[in-house]
Amino acid sequence: MRLIHPTTSDDVDLARAYAYPEGRCVRLNMVASADGGTWLEGLSGGLSGSGDRRVFGVLRGQADVVLAGAATVRAEGYGPARPRESWRELRRGRSAAPPIAVLTRRLDLNLASPLFAEAEPDARTIVITCEAAPRDRREEAARHAEVIVAGGDRVDLAAALGELAARGLERVLCEGGPKINAQLAAADLVDELCLTVSPMLIGGDAARVLDGPGSLTRLRLAHVLEEDGFLFTKYVRPLR
Ligand SMILES: NC(=O)c1ccc[n+]([C@@H]2O[C@H](COP(=O)([O-])OP(=O)(O)OC[C@H]3O[C@@H](n4cnc5c(N)ncnc54)[C@H](OP(=O)(O)O)[C@@H]3O)[C@@H](O)[C@H]2O)c1
User: Fold this and answer.
1) Measured between alpha carbons, how far is residue 225 from residues 55, 71, 232 in Å?
2) How many domains does the chain have?
3) Quick check: CB of 74 below 6 Å from ligand 1?
4) Whose CA is nearest to atom 8 of ligand 1?
């Protein structure tokens, strides 16, 4: 992998390139085709490649918590993040792997799946839901996961992020999908976007990185890396 912006270099330290800034930060990580689609036959995997998987791993290693929408968790068959040897230094003083936090109103989750049954004891899966969620499912979820209730009819994302921060989970890696990305952006909560641009055109009806009501977040291009025709971009908020 080589750096092609803001300077050029064949020697890229991914851990440095993707270090979080100080304090609270919400980073989106997505892969999209060159024409902007974020899934192929319903999944992101067909858009990815070996470089993307490496960056994905480094981003998880840096994060305090991985946030994902329930549709992504269901479609992609999410399991817990597994500790990696390469994360040991990065994660000193934190859980060996970041917990997964699932955003859901309906709580239609398989609580017997590895996502809940095989999470590390210090990185139990977190379910973020709202008052409107079925009470019996909330109680059942609480037997298998940490449950955060933030909001009435739907999850209030700012409140949910506040609850995560109160648990020391300030470096948030949101892995999508596009529907929760759009809500985060609409609430002005996105600090960074790590976007892999895959060298393919896919057409069809795959959502873009944001799928929801329009909003404007201005970003600054922090870096571009390249490998095998894939571009690995990192955008950050301009200083306010
Ligand atoms: N290219 C990529 O990098 C990438 C990354 C991630 C996902 N994807 C793809 O994106 C697709 C899924 O994304 P998506 O945009 O359709 O859905 P999503 O954002 O993953 O999840 C939407 C679900 O999250 C829950 N949710 C969202 N906002 C909520 C709120 N404010 N309060 C309570 N619950 C809320 C609801 O779950 P309940 O229905 O359980 O209530 C909702 O159905 C999949 O095809 C996946 O493969 C691609």
Assistant:
1) 10, 29, 5
2) 1
3) no
4) 177
